[in-house]
Design brief:
Layout (H helix, E strand, L loop, with lengths): L2 H69 L15
Length: about 90
């Protein structure tokens, strides 16, 4: 496409945007709002799942520490102290 063809295509696109833009904008707003809403819902669900997984992992680590404490002979400590209790 030459210089004039590109220019004509640009003018046509501008006229189409000016003509159909407002109607397209009114149609797209609810669609975009719905997409953002679904993103928020998915994000909240992911945060809840992450908190549950974090809690389960903390429980598992604490159980493993307790097992290690029970298996370690008195006077020998092989597990590092809990940082939160120091």
């Amino acid at each position: 496409m030459g210089g004039f063809g590109t220019f004509a295509l640009g003018v046509s696109a501008a006229l189409a945007a000016r003509t159909f833009g407002p109607a397209l904008g009114r149609w797209m707003r609810p669609v975009a709002r719905g997409a953002v809403k679904q993103g928020i819902i998915l994000s909240q669900g992911a945060q809840i799942r992450a908190a549950e997984l974090r809690e389960a992992l903390e429980d598992l680590v604490e159980e493993a520490r307790e097992d290690a404490r029970q298996e370690t002979p008195p006077g020998q400590r092989t597990v590092a102290p809990d940082v939160a209790s120091v």
